Amino acid sequence: MSDTSSGVVDLLGALAYAELTGFLRLAEDAATLAPTLTDRAELSDLAAVEHRHFRLLRDRLVELGADPEEAMAPFVDAFDSWHALTRPSDWLEALVKAYVGTGIAMDFYREAARRVGPDIAGLVEEALADEGRSEFAVERVRAALEREPKAAGRLALWSRRLVGEALSQAHRVAAARPALAALLVEADEGEDLPAVGRLFARLTEQHAKRMSALGLSASS
Amino acid sequence: MSDTSSGVVDLLGALAYAELTGFLRLAEDAATLAPTLTDRAELSDLAAVEHRHFRLLRDRLVELGADPEEAMAPFVDAFDSWHALTRPSDWLEALVKAYVGTGIAMDFYREAARRVGPDIAGLVEEALADEGRSEFAVERVRAALEREPKAAGRLALWSRRLVGEALSQAHRVAAARPALAALLVEADEGEDLPAVGRLFARLTEQHAKRMSALGLSASS
């Protein structure tokens, strides 16, 4: 039970820092990469959604008697490293990151939330609500690929890098936070495939769906 | 009447861009200068308030039949220049900017809103609502000055630069946008001091109040 509790605080702390830093990075991309004022404003809208999700998580951590700063601290290095290693160099890369990179990160939180109580699982779902982010990115990337089909190779490569770096940081976090890792790979009753194998099968499937939505190949 | 209307669109466009870019700059300061995760989170909260104010203004521009991007465009260069010329080099400078720099900018909008209808004036007041920004900055700057009194000279100099650059950009905007300038300096009935003189007297008085709240001298 104390393992579950520390797993829950880890889950909410990780997700809170992910939303806080996601908010700040989207704001940076809006400020530095958006091609028009309208795009800048719309990406700012999406950043503000992440901030709202951050507040939900911070408030719940406080309600649970946890200190939000302490709950977030174990995840700062891994998430900051991920962002530093996947800094978009243009608007299209920023859009793909907002969809593919954020997408796989969210899949991890959803997986962990499968093994917490309905109250926390509901909060996690609320914090993961898409609220237009995917549509925003998919529409713009598809339109850009219609104008310039040869950008597809570069963006597919970029997507692989986003996912590779995400898996690498997830591995680092799982090693350092066993209670959180247990939420991800605990065996369910009556399932016989190894839990890690099932987890990666689901993550890969979701990633392939996103690549296909962008008009990119996951394997090319 | 058409002068007033273009003045109103200018006022809302200028304020909308100020809030949008204020949002993005506060987010940048939160990401790069906040000394703790809690400070980062709290400055992010203030940034999100600016984003909410931006949305109010953008929505009203759309209701008025104006294109928000076109309404904001005339102010981009002046506001971006102001931010580029007043980039804080540390957390204390960021806090002073959030209070003193944003304060004088808001005084300009309040002055212009004195001469528009109550409907627009009410919207401007809502968009200028402080929502904790001043208290956040004042508390932290005062505490820092208690620990390190000799920082006062540097921060007083920084404040003068913030205000000097703000007046310089305001002058540039007023020259380029006569309908907006007219809202600022139109003579009121029964007043005999020149309007520009009264405007600067009020701006100076408000600035001195802010400096005093920080524990800094406006003239030292």
Automatic annotation (TrEMBL), chains A, B:
It holds the Pfam family MiaE_2. InterPro entries: Ferritin-like, Ferritin-like_SF, Ferritin_actino. It comes from the Bacteria. Residues 6-186 form the Ferritin-like domain. This is Rubrerythrin.
